[in-house]
Amino acid sequence: MVSTNWRDDYFTKAGKYEEIGIPEYWIVDYLGLGGRRFIGNPKQPTISIYQLIEGEYQVRQFRGSDRIQSLAFPEFNLTAEQIFRAGEI
Fold first, then answer.
1. Cα–Cα distance, 81 to 89 (Å, whole number)
2. Angle in degrees, CA 43, 44, 46, rounded to 5
3. Which parts of the chain are beta strand (E)?
4. Which of 3, 38, 56, 83 would give a disulfide with 34, using CB separation of 3.0 to 4.6 Å?
5. At 79, phi and psi to the nearest 5?
6. Is the pLDDT of residue 7 over 70?
């Protein structure tokens, strides 16, 4: 989840996690709080999945009806919208 200080989530954590070799981590920005350079313009709810490829993170982003694709969870079968709406049930 993105904390209220999204700068830490997008800047600091990526560097620290990359340094210690965490193979994959997700930022679930369900309110679209991140900076435009991180989640695009217009801002919208976004799931960013960072995957460690050859020592550097590559990011894939998912919104709306995009089906989540994860190396850590290959059987995962939900869309971004389904994740964002989970709390409404």
1. 13
2. 115
3. 24-29, 46-53, 56-62
4. 38
5. -95, 165
6. no
Give this prediction's pTM: 0.86
How many alpha carbons fall within 13 Å on the CB side of residue 76? 14
Tokens (6 digits) for 14: 């990526």
Distance CA 58, CA 46 (A): 16
Q: What amino acid is encoded at 13 in this protein?
A: K
DSSP state, 34? S
Number of other residues whose CB lies within 10 A of the CB of residue 78? 13
Backbone Cα Rg of the chain: 13
**Exposure class string for 28-41: b at 16+ Cβ within 10 A, else e:** bbbebbbeeebbee
